[in-house]
């Protein structure tokens, strides 16, 4: 296996009761090993570690994140790969909220930790577990540089007109209320990948990127620079999602508080966990939703209609933002796998030079694929996202720029030939 030759990156994504990790070969792009720790703090934990095609599972209690990461390192020791041999050049941490402070990845030190901590009020559910993961990883792996990659960083370039909410400026400023955008690592990776696959310069391409997973967001990217995105101060704004509402009239919240006796926490729960496809149809997985639609379930039919309608509104809006659109690209669980959503999102737009070829579109896409017909002036593509690889490559670039020993090879291998699949 080639990973020993040029080093690897351990990518860590630490949530409130879970840790997901992947040991990534940043040059070849593959995952050398991967796994997750779940049910941290519960009486029975779950640790799953996959290496060389075998998954090892442990169900001992994992009292806290430190114990979780120690269990992971023990599994690396026991079943491999040997982390010393894998030559870990950096640990890359995903952090959700970088606020107005962080526009690029940074090497962790105590100051950086304090700055991230100060941003916690903007992402109170995500930031504390992100930081806990960073701190325990620094203690357990003290000899490698730790790099933080922010979900918001790609959107630090949003023009003020796109980032500003039209509310009292003093209130907004006092409480850091502005649009930050999320899923940035994915939007950046996918838009860059499009250019490489097409053999075009990123600077020459205007793209609309549709990251449709359980969470979903759209972005407008002009020449590699993000100029608009659908998520706002939090990942709740914008598209209809699995369990999140996306856009609603803010006065709905006032109404529910005044007239339905709902507390702030009730409304938080409503909009984040009891809305979106789940709220409309009782089901947030598209595979199940389509079955309900086929069976004639009216709630499911409406849910799909609302989802597609919102998506089309954003595509139209981003057309106006960009003026000219060269590529529309679908990614993440729904975008990569759901040909029905892709076809419906772009139906009837032939007059705009946009269409989906139903044969090219059919089925799940594991590789970058063009799904528009040859005559269309806008290319429509599916490009699988890979946030772990993107974090690994950014971590390597960051430690190399800081003068650490990094990987010596090209970190961006030639893409597979473009073509109509
Ligand atoms: P997350 O936001 O949790 O990272 P993913 O990007 O993994 O989400 O997307 C998960 C969603 O992708 C599922 O909820 C489901 O709706 C959708 N999905 C996954 N596989 C398929 C499939 N084969 N067909 C249609 N939709 C799929």
From TrEMBL:
Transmembrane segments: none annotated. GO terms for biological process: acetate metabolic process; acetyl-CoA biosynthetic process. One of its GO terms (molecular function) is magnesium ion binding. It catalyses: acetate + ATP = acetyl phosphate + ADP. Its main location: cytoplasm. The record marks 183, 244 as: Transition state stabilizer. Mg(2+). Can also accept Mn(2+). Its cofactor is Mg(2+); Mn(2+). Its EC number is 2.7.2.1. GO terms for cellular component: cytoplasm. Mg(2+) binds at residues 13, 387. The keyword Nucleotide-binding applies. Keywords: ATP-binding, Cytoplasm, Kinase, Magnesium, Metal-binding, Nucleotide-binding, Transferase. PROSITE patterns: ACETATE_KINASE_1, ACETATE_KINASE_2. ATP binds at residues 20, 211-215, 285-287, 333-337. It is an enzyme of class 2 (transferase). It is found in: Cytoplasm. The active site is at residue 151. Substrate binds at residue 94. Catalyzes the formation of acetyl phosphate from acetate and ATP. Can also catalyze the reverse reaction. Belongs to the acetokinase family. PANTHER family: ACETATE KINASE, ACETATE KINASE-RELATED. Homodimer. HAMAP family: Acetate_kinase. This is Acetate kinase. It comes from Cellulomonas humilata.
